[in-house]
Design brief:
Layout (H helix, E strand, L loop, with lengths): L1 E4 L7 E9 L5 E7 L3 H4 L9 E4 L2 E4 L11 E4 L5 E4 L15 H6 L14 E10 L4 E8 L5 E7 L1 H7 L9 E2 L14 H9 L1
Parallel strand pairs: 3-6, 10-11
Antiparallel strand pairs: 1-2, 2-3, 4-7, 5-6, 8-9, 9-10
Length: 195
């Protein structure tokens, strides 16, 4: 979950956004308009399983889409959310994209959000001021392919002390991305063993 702010503001929330998935890994965007954010922000917790009823379905159009699903969900005043106790429901489903495929992409709009996994092997440009924070990291996959990954805002501080040092790059989507560092996740353990 992440807050989407009014244009030009870092404090005025326009919407609460989330990307959810079903048991098969199909991702869809969920939007909560500003006027009802308070109804849902405290009810839901990232990583939990919920049943959602009485929502609107809209076409997923626009320049900054976070999923490639043709629809998105918008919660309303009549939306009902309830906890589901399903311990076997997959909490994290990844859609890893090989670095070579990323480099071959013509535009970032080809696939809005995808996952990458790699070892941090260097640091690029850093901007850390009051207007914006960003850091470029150089990642390497198990085949020694390298790509830059740009992280924004809160992720900058997390990484600045951990790294030493015209092409397509991957980039965190402000607060929409989830970054795992030394996490106990099966895919990360498998990657570590290959590297």
């Amino acid at each position: 979950m992440y807050n989407k702010y009014q244009v030009g503001s870092k404090t005025q929330i326009s919407r609460l956004e989330s990307v959810v998935h079903d048991a098969e890994g199909t991702r869809i965007q969920v939007s909560v308009p500003n006027k009802i954010v308070g109804m849902f922000a405290r009810k839901v917790k990232e990583g939990e399983v919920y049943q959602i009823k009485n929502f609107m379905v809209k076409r997923n159009v626009g320049k900054f889409r976070v999923t490639n699903h043709i629809f998105k969900i918008e919660l309303t005043m009549k939306t009902m959310i309830s906890d589901l106790m399903q311990p076997t429901f997959p909490k994290a489903i990844f859609s890893f994209k090989p670095f070579e495929e990323i480099k071959a992409m013509q535009t970032a709009a080809e696939e809005p959000l995808f996952d990458v996994i790699g070892v941090i092997v260097g640091k690029g440009f850093v901007k850390n001021d009051t207007d914006a924070k960003m850091v470029e990291l150089k990642l390497e996959d198990e085949n020694c392919n390298q790509i830059y990954c740009t992280l924004w805002e809160d992720y900058v501080d997390m990484f600045l002390n951990l790294v030493d040092e015209g092409e397509m790059r991957v980039c965190s989507s402000n607060n929409a991305s989830k970054v795992y560092l030394h996490a106990d996740i099966e895919e990360i353990e498998s990657f570590r063993k290959k590297s």
